[in-house]
């Protein structure tokens, strides 16, 4: 199998780079070497296994064509990036054979023809960027890919209408500079007209030309959508009832052999069934208790010995009503209401994480061992082949993201509190980094929505170690040893968010680029949150913290400070506050 993949990849490269002598440039990519062991150019393999994970061949002047059949022989491929080359021709329907793909980046090439409809079969896809090519025809309907976060198709020749997308989940969307026509979709406030500009036939409220009354409106499409979801809802309910019946029958058979070992008190096994109504954000989620899968430790729910769990009846957790709070990059988050205990917990369901059951268990137990007051405790976790669940205490006071960008727009977060968040979170992260360095476990998905406020409004780091680092700004530095430096980068973005009050990314806006160019133009003070300026926040402290942030977001990972150094810098900025207030008359 490995040889088959290797030969197919050699073929893929020969089509991609027909005129190029790779031997001369030492790219590897030949039948006498191994893609993983011999570090072929642009190839990243899965840890400890000889399977291909990523192919990143950017800015290499590749001029050939994309041979999807050969490429997709590498079934395990998750990231394909061929940005900024000169690749021609079409993308064939065979691309869907790369079923594990999560990221496809093809921008700035010479691709033409239709985008294959089979893209919609890539159910794991998170980011698709085909901008700046010569693609034409209709944009395929990708609305069934529930985890899609990015769709960038600007600067092509696409025509026809804009198909359905789940805009509430997309982080970035752009179809500007095409030939699209018909009514523009309702973005629900997520994006503005810049995502649509320069499509002469498009009409709608966001654009200067409103739609004629006879044009089929977005409403009709909505009603199609609703019907579709209602029918798929019926199918889902039918399926769940069947599962429950099968489950009850198995239960009946097993209950006779039930073993009441008291040691098992905190280690219960569960089977999980969920129903989720896609038509609205809120959905039902219930966990049904099952003493099944005794022989399979990897599919058990492990309740860790944390204080909140004392007196908590596990069965109640399993049967409690729940509400879908959000769907992020790594999965969905449910608020589970435990009526009797008067306790709400947050249950995170993680999708598509390629980690073995044992690996996951060890990782969670290891993270749980390293305790810090400003890091959320894991209450329990669950792992089966298909999904992983993590249980945290629900924090009613919400996240830093909500506080900064919610209806209050950061008003309730004055400078001193922001500095306090920076100091506490940096200390927590530094502590976790130092204790988990040897295990190679970084946070992996640090952002303001993963910083939650406790009852006492103390900031707490959530979801530590739940993701491999997939930071787009940092794509070339994805390997483990850089995961910690990638956290530093993300921490720098949080500092920028605290200082500017702006979203990290919004509709093409990128906070790091913006701040860097503002500083080049020497209008540093302009970047600070207006609220902070009018509050009379200490400007010298803000400028100093901005310098820390800029060190963190240095494009070279090696040049970034480590978290311990950052803690030192932030503390001395805080000390400055003490000193200056002491010296006040
Ligand atoms: N324990 C918790 N208590 C209260 N709210 C939480 C808790 N954990 C997460 N949240 C909030 O729920 C929302 C959804 O969380 P989720 O983790 O699914 O999304 P995310 O952080 O945006 O994305 P990602 O999957 O990349 O972490 C976020 O606003 C987050 O701040």
Structure, explained:
This protein is α/β, with parallel strands linked by helices. It has 13 helices and 25 strands. The strands form 5 sheets. Strands 15-14-16-20-21-19-18-17 form an 8-stranded antiparallel sheet. It has a 7-stranded mixed sheet with strand order 1-2-3-5-7-9-11, with no helix packed on it. The longest helix has 38 residues, at 218-255. The radius of gyration is 26 Å and the shape is globular. Adenosine-5'-triphosphate (ATP) is lined by residues 325-326, 328-333, 346, 392, 394-395, 399, 445, 449-450, 452, 462-463.
Instruction: Indicate the structural class.
Output: alpha/beta
Q: How many DSSP H or I helices?
A: 13
Strand content: 15-25%
Bound molecules: adenosine-5'-triphosphate
Radius of gyration, taken over Cα atoms and rounded to an integer in Å: 26 Å
The overall average pLDDT, rounded, is 79
Shape: globular
Q: How helix-rich are the residues, as a percent range?
A: 25-40%
Number-wise, the strands total: 25
Largest sheet, described in full? Answer: 8 strands, antiparallel
Q: What is the CA–CA distance across the termini?
A: 77 Å
Spatially, the strands of the biggest sheet line up as 15-14-16-20-21-19-18-17
Low-confidence stretches: 214-239, 252-299, 469-478
Main location: membrane
Domain Protein kinase: 319-585
InterPro entries: Kinase-like_dom_sf, Leu-rich_rpt, LRR_dom_sf, LRR_N_plant-typ, PRK1-6/SRF4-like, Prot_kinase_dom, Protein_kinase_ATP_BS
Pfam families: LRR_1, LRRNT_2, Pkinase
What tags apply to this protein structure?
single chain; 585 residues; alpha/beta; 13 helices; globular; binds adenosine-5'-triphosphate
């Amino acid at each position: 199998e490995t040889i088959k993949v290797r030969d197919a990849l050699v073929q893929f490269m020969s089509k991609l780079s027909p005129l190029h002598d790779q031997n001369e440039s030492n790219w590897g990519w030949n039948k006498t070497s191994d893609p993983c062991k011999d570090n072929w150019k642009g190839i990243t393999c899965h840890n400890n296994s000889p399977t291909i994970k990523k192919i990143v061949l950017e800015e290499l002047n590749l001029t050939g064509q994309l041979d999807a059949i050969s490429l997709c022989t590498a079934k395990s491929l998750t990231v394909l990036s061929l940005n900024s080359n000169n690749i021609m021709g079409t993308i064939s329907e065979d691309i869907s054979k790369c079923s594990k793909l999560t990221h496809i980046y093809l921008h700035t090439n010479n691709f033409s023809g239709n985008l294959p409809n089979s893209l919609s079969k890539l159910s794991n896809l998170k980011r698709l960027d085909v901008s700046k090519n010569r693609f034409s025809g209709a944009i395929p309907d990708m609305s069934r890919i529930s985890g899609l976060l990015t769709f960038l198709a600007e600067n092509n020749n696409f025509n026809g209408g804009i198909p359905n997308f789940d805009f509430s989940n997309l982080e970035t969307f752009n179809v500007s500079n095409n030939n699209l026509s018909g009514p523009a979709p309702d973005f629900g406030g997520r994006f503005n007209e810049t995502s649509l500009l320069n499509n002469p036939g498009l009409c709608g409220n966001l654009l200067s030309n409103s739609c004629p009354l006879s044009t089929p409106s977005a409403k009709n499409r909505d009603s199609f959508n609703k019907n579709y979801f209602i029918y798929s809802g019926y199918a889902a309910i039918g399926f769940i009832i069947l599962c429950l019946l099968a489950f009850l029958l198995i239960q009946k058979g097993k209950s006779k052999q039930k073993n009441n070992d008291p040691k098992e008190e905190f280690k219960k096994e569960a089977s999980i069934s969920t129903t989720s109504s896609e038509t609205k954000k809120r959905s039902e989620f219930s966990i049904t208790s099952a003493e099944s899968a005794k022989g399979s430790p990897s599919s058990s729910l492990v309740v860790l010995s944390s204080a909140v769990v004392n007196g908590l009846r596990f069965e109640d957790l399993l049967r409690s009503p729940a509400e879908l709070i959000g769907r992020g990059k790594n999965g969905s988050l449910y608020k589970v209401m435990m009526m009797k205990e008067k306790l709400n917990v947050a249950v995170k369901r993680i999708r598509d994480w390629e980690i073995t059951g044992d690996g996951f268990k060890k990782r969670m137990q290891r993270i749980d061992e390293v305790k810090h007051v400003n890091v959320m405790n894991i209450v329990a976790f669950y792992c089966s082949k298909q999904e992983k669940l993590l249980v945290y205490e629900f924090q009613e006071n919400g996240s830093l993201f909500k506080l900064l960008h919610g209806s209050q727009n950061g008003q309730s977060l004055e400078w001193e509190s922001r500095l306090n968040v920076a100091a506490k979170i940096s200390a927590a992260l530094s502590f976790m980094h130092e204790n988990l360095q040897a295990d190679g476990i970084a946070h992996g998905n640090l952002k303001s929505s993963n910083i939650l406020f406790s009852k006492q409004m103390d900031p707490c780091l959530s979801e530590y170690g739940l993701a491999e680092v997939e930071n787009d700004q940092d794509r070339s530095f994805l390997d483990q040893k850089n995961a910690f430096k990638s956290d530093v980068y993300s921490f720098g973005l949080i500092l920028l968010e605290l200082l500017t009050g702006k979203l990290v990314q919004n509709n093409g806006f990128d906070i790091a680029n913006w701040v860097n160019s503002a500083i080049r133009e020497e209008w540093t003070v302009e970047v600070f949150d207006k609220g902070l300026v009018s509050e009379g926040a200490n400007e010298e402290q803000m400028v100093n913290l901005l310098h820390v942030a800029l060190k963190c977001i240095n494009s070279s990972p090696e040049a970034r400070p480590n978290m311990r150094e950052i803690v030192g810098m932030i503390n001395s900025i805080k000390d400055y506050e003490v000193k200056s207030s002491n010296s006040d008359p």
